[in-house]
Amino acid sequence: VTTGNCTINANQAGDGTYNAATQVQQTFAVAAVVPGAPTSVSATAGNGSASVSFTAPAASGGASVTGYTVTVSPGGATVSGASSPINVTGLTNGTAYTFTVTATNSAGTGNASSASTAVTPQASQTITFNTIPNGVVGETVVLNATASSGLAISYGTTTPSVCTVSGTTASLIAQGTCTITAVQSGNAAFTAATQVNRSFTVNPTPVPVLSFSQAGPLQIILGNSLTNAVSSTLTGGSYGAVTYTSSNPAVATVDAAGKVTTVSAGTVTITATQAAVVGVNVQAT
């Protein structure tokens, strides 16, 4: 059935007693009614948006459907379109929304569909994780990846025999390749970021070499002093300062700068010690 004029013909063919009757016609207008409700409404969330799909109503109301209107809940905003799907923008990431759809023809707008299942728009995010320079056993590394969302990064390691992770710090515990993972799992407003890994080499701990400025054995006249400081091939960072000890302070003493002062006649050994990482101590005498 569609809109237009409908003409009904009435006939009587007669019989042995009666002649055929003159045909009578009646014409009247058939008007359209509003269409039925669309069905199978569903939504797919995007970044601040949703794509709403639906099936056209089974009953068009006798006239072509000229458009559809999506109503957003919460908020009540409406978006119109000619067919499925209809894209809805301006949504708030992290907020759950449902959608209903109505169809319109020349007679007006029909009833709304059932609401879609709720969907929550989310923005995407990425992780920036700079290259980590090579290190040595015993050092620690501060991890500094960032997420474009501003959310906190979680760190881990796929090589726990080489390096361990606690919070934002990696500890280098053995020689080898250390791989650090950076993860951001997302929240209501952001999807999970793609995991980023960074690998670097952990080298063995170098051993410092100590040497006195003047090679022994030395002779010092009683009552005099001599500064015989030690130089080291490794300083700063994880390596301690050089310290000095005297084997016999009754014969000679030594201060923190390596200055030896005689006290009495005799023989004495001055030892210089430097503490390296992971408990390695190096000495020179």
Automatic annotation (TrEMBL):
**Fibronectin type-III domain mapped to chain residues:** 34-123
The record ties this protein, via Pfam families, to: Big_2 (PF02368), fn3 (PF00041)
Q: InterPro entries under this entry?
A: Big_2, FN3_dom, FN3_sf, Ig-like_fold, Invasin/intimin_cell_adhesion
Cited PANTHER family: BLR4714 PROTEIN, MICROCYSTIN DEPENDENT PROTEIN
Can you say what this protein is called? Fibronectin type III domain-containing protein
